Amino acid sequence: MSRSDLPSHTCTIARASAQVGDEWTLLIMRELFLGTRRFDDFLRLTSMSSHLLSQRLRKLETQGVIRREPYSERPPRHEYRLTEKGLDLWTVIIALKQWGDRWLSTEDTPVQIMHKVCGNVVRPHMICPDCGERMGAHDAEAKISEPFQMERQAVRRAP
Fold first, then answer.
1. Tens digits of residue pLDDT in 49-96
2. DSSP collapsed to 3 states, 44-96
3. 3-88+125-157 in CATH: which number?
């Protein structure tokens, strides 16, 4: 499987990783969720080259994850805002943050998540929407669709 094949796969994890799965894009998403909006701020806060940042922002905009909004006409300048599609990546960023806090942190977490409603610092987790029970990997079973199963079998048979 090559990177260029990912967008055409049946598996939505493969297709999603083709859109937002590289480290630079994830850092841009981190910054967007922390409130960063302007190109120069992304440059400083991610240490990316301007060329790479431009490419990633353009890709995220093309995919509908972010939108550009003008804030200056002379010179023309834009801010970057999350779309609904981009906001839906919040759980992905939080899951990566929590995994990193557990397995990669040498000190206290560098970012705490506070619930605006009650003001408490929280560690979000997955809950079953039907029974209300907390869920982890051992509490779930994957059911693979027929098209995805066929794709997996074809790959296993390929030379």
1. 999 999 999 999 999 999 999 999 999 999 999 999 999 999 999 999
2. HHHCCCHHHHHHHHHHHHHCCCEEEEEEECCCCEEEEEECHHHHCCHHHHHHH
3. 1.10.10.10
